[in-house]
Amino acid sequence: MKHSRPVVHQFILPSRLRRRRALFYSTVFLLTSVATWFMADLLWRDGGIIGVEWVLLVLFVILFSQIAVGFTTAMLGFYVINRGGDRQRITRTVDWNNEDVPLATTSIVMPVFNEDVSRVFEGLRVIYRSLEATGKLEHFDFFILSDSNKPNQWIQEEVAWAELCKQVNGFGRIFYRKRRQQINKKAGNVADFLRRWGKRYRYMVVLDADSIMTGEAIVKLVAMMEKNPQTGLIQTAPRLIYGESLYARLQQFANRLYSPLFLAGLNYWQQQDGNYWGHNAIIRVQPFMEHCALPDLPGTEPFGGRILSHDFVEAALMRKAGWHVWLAHDIEGTYEEGPPTLIDSAKRDRRWCQGNMQHAWLLTTRGFRGANRFHLFMGVMAYVSSPLWLLFLVLSTIHVFNQVVAAKTQLPVLEPYVEVFGRFIELPQALSLFIFTMLLLFLPKIIGVYTTIKRKADAARFGGRGPLMVSALLEIVLSALLAPMNMFFNSKFVFFSLLGQGVSWVTQRRGTEDGTDWREAIITHGGQTVFGLVWGVSSFILFPPFFWWLSPVLAGLVFSIPISITLSKGLLGERARRIGLFMTPEETQPPAELARLTQNLATCYKLMRPIEALRNDYGLLQAVLDPYVNAVHVAMLRQRRPSEESRDWFALLRHRLLSEGPAKLTSKETLALLLDAESMIWLHEELWKQPSSALAEWWRLAMRQYNVLTAAPITALYR
């Protein structure tokens, strides 16, 4: 049964929304115009704008407009927060104190790909228990959608699923599915789920492997969807949690402190033309299935083929079909984890860069709303702006060097005054432009700190007023050092994409482990360091004043290796936490769900540690050795009738596995055995039948380890 076009219910009058957007865009235009006037006047004083100066001016306009967009969004957010919140927001459509909104069938889906099994399933346990505490659990089903391609990972996921279902009585409510073919990555995984089971559910809550959402937050999302039948998608604003390294703590502190301004401002002007970030969101299933199928782009990767960054496009398609997309930025109880190191963050950005670059194809798509085109454009510019900044800085250097070579007596950075509406102020022209730019960059952060410390209770959630101000100051300094490194990373990624180099789908590292070592840092940041040294020495020799103007950029590049290593250390992150730096409300006043997850993970990691010799193939060990795991695994396999030739090959693999051990088989051969039900049944029976002398030493050790583990059940330790 197809949905008709949604009934339109106006949250805000169209004329008023137009005024809001006019205010937003006109402010961006005004700020950019003022800065452009400064820059043009600066360039004009050298005898007119010619040659490379025109390129500099065009680049400046493009880049400064990006700064103006961020500043304007934050200022609108400050206005909204200062007046007590926006009346036109999705969360105000439900009276939470006096209204009991009926819920509807909802699936909670979590696509996974070679993730930490304990973290995934302990997170699901917490979400399940939290929903159970609301008394609304009967409306929800859970789906773990696995694309893991490692044999060990697959079996551990099956075992964890079975254990979780036993412990929370979740059979028939918590489901696990392993795809045979990993087609179209996460988007394909979710699409496959919808084709098979989507029609059973009115809504779908999409999570990432590291997502946590409280039961109250999920129930509120469903209630808002029920109350607003014209709404197709509601995106929440996840908070970063569990940062252990100094880099991760820095990111989650900045996210928690500054994001309320930007999110409130974003919602102020976009309203029902919101965006989708791919997780921690609720989707109305039927219109999503009907209208959000992703097209293949013309050509091949990296610009063509399947769309990688699917979320922005799906939001645009939902709006094109007439359904509202909202940002519920004030919903609490929604969390995710961030990358532990700068290098891990860059690896994630490499994937995102290619996906966002593909959106350039879609900017002129017929039927897209203006706001969605703007979202797509800003996604492209998030990465394209980096090579443009680099080009701007390099051309500026060349421009100054040309002036030095031409023996000009007065350079733009030394202008003694600035002209403002006919009045002359004794301030260097370049310095005035620099101050104006810094004001737009850092004033939102200053306001974010101010709005927090003005109330003692709010400041206490960040560790107190003193630690909060010190943390904010350190964050500003460190983010300034990180900016040129990220500029180089993204410039490299854009360049690789232009050369036609695609990316593979890799697992995101979430724990700190040992941080970044010197070898990895030198390989990754070596080029940045050399470039910074050459650039800095050349600048200093030819014109020392320009060197000092460049010094903030040069410092980040020259010291990129030690900065990256230092920020990656979990020990330094722990020390910062102990003295109260970079604290967040989720640490000072953790909600019950996060406290429970922390406790369960500590227990899980402490007890479930197979000895080193068995670690790499521990999942295979369980599937062959343990009768319960073997039965669960076989029951979940699709029964097939292999050919005679295939049977001979499987028989050979089975004998090799038992007599030689799993190390002698390739990953492809191990996966083939795990996919064959007949082989798994035979392996389990023969392993227990054969004498020890007929088995590889690995299996003899595995059986001893199994006997130790089965003597100490740990089920009762989890809550």
Q: In a nutshell, what does this entry contain?
A:
By secondary structure, the chain is of the alpha/beta class.
Polypeptide structure, described:
Among the domains are: 15-81 and 385-578, no CATH class; 615-717, no CATH class. Helix 4 packs across helix 22 (618-625), helix 7 (246-270) crosses helix 12 (429-453) and helix 15 (518-542) packs antiparallel against helix 16. Strand 11 (418-420) and strand 12 form a beta hairpin. The protein is globular. It has helices at 14-44, 52-82, 117-134, 151-168, 185-197, 215-227, 246-270, 285-291, 310-320, 342-358, 370-405, 429-453, 456-460, 465-498, 518-542, 544-558, 560-567, 570-578, 585-588, 592-607, 612-615, 618-625, 627-635, 644-660, 667-675, 677-689, 697-710; strands at residues 106-112, 140-146, 174-178, 203-206, 212-213, 231-236, 239-241, 281-284, 324-328, 334-337, 418-420, 423-425. The chain starts with 13 loop residues before the first helix and ends in a 9-residue tail after the last helix. The protein has a seven-stranded mixed β-sheet with strand order 3-2-1-4-8-6-9, with helices on both faces. Residues 1-10, 408-415, 418-427 and 712-719 have low confidence and may be disordered. The chain has 719 residues and is of the alpha/beta class. The chain has 27 helices and twelve strands.
Shape: globular
Strand order of the largest sheet: 3-2-1-4-8-6-9
* Beginning-to-end CA distance, first to last residue: 41 Å
- What level of helicity do the residues show? 55-70%
Strand residues, percent: 5-15%
Task: Give the tally of β-strands.
Answer: 12
Secondary structural class: alpha/beta
| Average pLDDT over all residues | 87
